[in-house]
Design a protein that fits this description.
The protein is an alpha/beta fold and about 300 residues long. About 35% of the residues lie in helices and about 25% in strands. Bound molecules: 6-O-phosphono-beta-D-tagatofuranose (TA6). 6-O-phosphono-beta-D-tagatofuranose binds next to β2, α1 and α8.
């Protein structure tokens, strides 16, 4: 079974602007839509669309939280969220204009998780996760959550000998590494911060990965339009994504993670895993919402992804 855990759920308010977003100007909207936000939630949506059974968990609050769960359920995701009272799931603002240069994302820190919500989440994981299950923790925890509490949640999963997949940054990523996760997926900025190096060219990333000694089976570094690098054992691969007309890249990284998870679930090779992830992520970026993608388009794009062995 695959579980996804979103500690800081969100609803995305997607504001599409006509033309280019300009300061000191009345920027007219074309439309405003709401969609599922938060990162692991997107992993679940993508997995369900691919046809892989999974369960989405985490902590929600108030009517926005209930709305996120409703939208996920409509997309066929099996949800088991802990409902914390007297708080509201945050709203993220995503501004998409017609410049083709990418979206603006504005996020809030999210509500403070109560002791009892965390206890309920840990109990749910303890009761349900079995050996060899895959458990994805993706997204920034609420700012006030200590990395020790984050670690405690991950440890419940690790103690079950399940595969931990982590998409987090900063102190949370550092803390997660102590538990030897199966896969981590920092983006280029998070990876530079993690390794404390200024990196630019693909070769610099390859060298940094080559000499990085951490106890993680697969390290994937996403590099935006340059694709992604993956280190598995002593091998490093780069996937070069297809050339697409990008509409809204919000969530593309989360869908990329879903592609990785789908292939881990099928015991596929690292190169197959990377190619599929790139195709799923690219297909997401061709949609204007945060959680929409087409499996058919992803399968077509798969033929346009290229893989290179870097060492
Ligand atoms: O990756 C996109 C996204 O999941 C948005 O949907 C948005 O809600 C945001 O990221 C949340 O990111 P955060 O790192 O704050 O958990």
């Amino acid at each position: 079974m695959i579980y996804t855990v979103t500690l800081n759920t969100a609803i995305d308010r997607i504001v599409q602007i006509s033309g280019t977003l300009t300061r000191k100007h009345n920027n007219k909207t074309k439309f405003v839509k709401f969609d599922i936000g938060g990162k692991a939630t997107h992993v679940s949506v993508a997995l369900s669309a691919i046809g892989i059974q999974n369960c989405a968990t985490g902590i929600i609050g108030g009517s926005t939280g209930r709305r996120v769960v409703e939208m996920m359920t409509q997309k066929g995701v099996n949800c088991h969220f802990i409902n914390q009272s007297d708080v509201e799931t945050r709203e993220s603002i995503i501004i998409v204009d017609e410049s083709g240069l990418g979206s603006y994302m504005i996020t809030q820190k999210g509500f403070v998780l109560s002791y009892s919500s965390i206890k309920s989440l840990k109990e749910f994981l303890k009761e349900n996760v079995k050996q060899d299950d895959i458990v994805v923790f993706a997204g920034s925890p609420p700012h006030d959550l200590s990395s020790e509490i984050y670690y405690d949640c991950l440890k419940v999963v690790k103690d079950k000998n399940a595969k931990l997949i982590i998409d987090a940054a900063g102190e949370y990523l550092h803390k997660a590494i102590e538990l030897k996760p199966y896969l981590i997926k920092p983006n280029e900025f998070e990876f530079q911060e993690f390794t404390n190096q200024k990196l630019d060219s693909i070769d610099e990333y390859v060298q940094a990965l080559k000499y990085l000694k951490i106890d993680v089976e697969i390290i994937v570094v996403s590099l935006g339009k340059r694709g992604a690098l993956a280190k598995y054992k002593d091998e490093i691969y780069q996937v070069i994504p297809p050339n697409i007309r990008e509409i809204n890249e919000t969530g593309a990284g989360d869908f990329f993670v879903a592609g990785l998870v789908a292939k881990i679930y099928e015991n596929a090779s690292p190169s197959e895993m990377l190619m599929f992830a790139a195709a799923v992520g690219a297909s997401k970026a061709m949609n204007d919402e945060s959680s929409n993608f087409s499996l058919e388009t992803a399968n077509r794009l798969l033929n346009e992804c290229k893989i290179e062995r870097k060492c």
